[in-house]
Amino acid sequence: MSEEFCFHCGLPVGSGSEFTVEIQGHPRIMCCAGCQAVAKTIVDIGMDSFYDHRLKSAPGTLPAADIVPQFIADLSNWDETSLQTPYITQSDQQNQEITLIIAGITCAACAWLIEQQLKKQAGIIECKINSSSHHALVTWNPEQIKLSQILQAIAAVGYKAEPYTPIRAEAQIKQDNKTALIRIGLAGLGTMQVMMYAVGLYLGAFEGMEQNYQSFLRWVSALVATPVYFYSGFPFLKAAQISLRNRHLTMDVSVAIAISFAYFASLWATLTNGPEVYFDSVCMFIFFLSVGRYLEMRARHHAQSSTIKLTHNQQLIARVVISDLQTQMIPANKLIVGQTILVKAGETIAGDGIVSAGESTVNEAMLTGEELPILKRINDAVTGGTFNIDQPLTITITKNPQESALATIKQLLARAEAIKPPTYVLADKIARQFVLAILVIASLVYLYWHFNSPADAFWITLSVLVVTCPCALSLATPTAITAATSALANIGFLSTRAHTIEALRSVDHVVFDKTGTLTNGNYELIQVCPLNNWSEIQVLAIASALEAYSEHPIAKAFHGESLPSALENVKVQPNLGVKGQWRGFNVRIGKPAFADPQNQVTPPEQSGGQWILLTVNSEPVAWFEVVDQLRQDAAETITILQQQGKTCHILSGDSSGHAYTVGKKLGIENIRHNAAPADKLSYIHDLQKNGARVLMVGDGINDGPVLAGADVSIAVANASDLAKIAADGVLLGTSLKPLIGVMKGANATYRIISQNLSWAILYNLIALPLAACGFIPPWASALGMSASSLLVVFNALRVKRIVGQTRWT
Amino acid sequence: MDIIYFLIPLALVLLVVAILAFIWAVRSNQFEDLDREAQRILFDEDQATTLKKSDQQNKLHNHGD
Predict the structure, then answer these.
(1) Cα(A286)–Cα(A235) distance, rounded to whole angstroms?
(2) Given a cut of 70, is residue A291 above it in pLDDT?
(3) CB–CB of B18 and A224 under 8 A?
(4) Interface touch B12/A223, C-beta < 8 Å
(5) Strands of A661-781, DSSP E
(6) Which of A483, A609, A663, A792 has its CA 20 to 30 A from that of B28?
């Protein structure tokens, strides 16, 4: 049977999954109970057409298993008034209003589904969800429904929602967007009008026209063009002024010179009955260029707001101990040194401190990359952001949130980012030379005609400037990058920086982190070695029954093998193993030293994995080998990357030999293990010193600095927030395979940018001499300019198709 | 041809009205989420067909009028 995929989240389903839901008359297979519950809710509220409208196999769809019961239980915290207050505004006498940020929205259908779900709840007055910013504005009546119930309703259809305060940058983005739209609207409407008058004027020029009609049309054109020039053209004039002040020539200088000359010369011609007016060209330039700029700005804003979204840390909540029986919840960033907090099992530790009571294991993977939990006793130091697994801990805070370990790593990251090698942006370099050339040529043309035919000199120079206005040139890059950004998002890659796509093209070395990047952090049982006449089935049955009591990542490797046998007096020893009684025998499973403390047994030969021992009445009965699973398509991805001529490396913080086992399996020879964050950074710097362009793929906080230091970097979907901030792009799904499409897309984009630039330059090379000789009438220059701009835009749109094809190859 | 002295100013007035309408639309957040609005009509239509089969027939009937 071929591999099946969960109908809800698109993850592969293990064979024989018993989770199904009947949707639109067909039983559909689900990967887990979470997806099943969500799908059922969706069907129950009559929204099954959601499955028709959503993007099929949208990358980054949250498997509902992500919405763990713990998350839902924690939602009730939000009913505490002290936590709510900063987020809520009183919309009128009875109703309250809040902005939520929702994770997992991939298309407009998601937003629709959530809206419908919320509208069905009693007490919700209004809800508006923006499918691009993922913000929801909800108004509700607190007497009828609680905030936690609203969040739970959203979780029931498979999305995580959290209260959110939009930060200043987002308000700014919104404002910029509106201003730009109004400028474009004005320019567009104005252009249409002025073009109509221009047709009249051209016809008049051919067939004769009475002077008073001509000057009337000119005056009306001037009237319409004036607000277009001053309001819609303002950004270009302003940018040109700035770049002149910085003595740095940009495309804006050339644009501003062309439109200003054309506008004022036309105004002069209108006043003095001069030979030509160019109001139509002025408006059209401004309109086309504003549209190009707007597209570019939207791509930039999209990147910016995705970074903001990615870096929106889940609000950590600290339970401050007030008295023996009482705790009060406050936001973690309000903690002060000396406060005592209680961290329950399954909660994230809110701040840096030392354990003052309790004993538990803590997962520090986000900090060290080490998936295995670490035992914490009284007086051990714990770090904020790490995860408490089995027992409650009482912690005394020793550092202010601003000085915490997390904050320190963030500073290291900022430093690495500051010395990041600059990306060579093709268009910038060309623009500088182009603008300089045009200015020189225009002056030469003016001088020539000044001596030969002074009356025409000004008008011919003007026509040179208008014809060479770098409209196509300045549209060449932004349109291609915009098209590529959206096409790559469709195959599961989110580019979060403007230069990412151009930088990816030149990459020749790809460096992977091991844990969490090449592997997925789930342990897998790969070998069972029964001893002394025990059968494999027997030992597996006992082992899986024991491990069923533990939530340790290694224990989870046994959870699938469920052959339950009756156990009594089971006790989980944090970080060591599990013991219990089976048919009257004492059974223990775990580290060799725990399972069999008396005898020093040695495991079978060492091979990258970890050995777990099972004993019955202190007699060793079986060895189990577990390893961290490789991501499903890691091998395939690496092979294709190598075929494309890229050298692959593994950089691992892990001290075991597992990195070499993984390397062998994937065919990677360059391996460094046991590397601290600073080692990783210097490894990359060494490569860069030898002229390599490095792409780093990573996930952990410990990868942050190296992600920031590489030429270009990508964080995987389940990466820590910090890694996502540091990276230039993020993979949205659980697969590594989009990397290949991303590489192809980057190459295609670069090719199209060069084509566009070549075309724009060619066009100018042809038009310039003609204009310099005085052969080009205004209508021809306008036509040529629009045609070449359109050509560039349509060429850029091809990126979408090229990237789209790579999706299935 | 003197009619243009009347028609063009009239067109200009309409242009100003169009620009003001556009500015109003932008300011009242109508351009915030373009993906969403493009698809909204599809969603609601479908919901009607799946939820209320009988209603739908009535609707078809009404459309036929």
Answers:
(1) 10
(2) yes
(3) no
(4) yes
(5) 670-672, 694-698, 712-715, 729-731
(6) A483
